[in-house]
Amino acid sequence: MFRPNITAMQGYVPGEQPRGMEFVKLNTNENPFPCSPAVKAAIGRVCQSGLQRYPDPMATAFRERAAELFKHEVPGITPDWILCGNGSDDILTIVTRSFVAPGGLIRFPRPSYILYNTLAAIQGAESETVDFKSDWTLGSAFTAANERLQLAFLPNPNSPTGTVIAPDKVAKLAAALPCPLIVDEAYADFATTNCLGLVAENERVIVTRTLSKSYSLAGLRFGFAVAQPQIIEQLIKVKDSYNCDSLSIAGATAAIDDQAYFAKTRDAIIATRERMTGALRGLGFECIDSQANFVWCRHGKRESRDLYQQLKDAGVLVRYMNYAGWGEGLRISVGSDEQCDLLLAKLGGMV
Question: What quaternary structure, including any partners, is listed in this protein's UniProt entry (predicted)?
Answer without folding.
Answer: Homodimer.
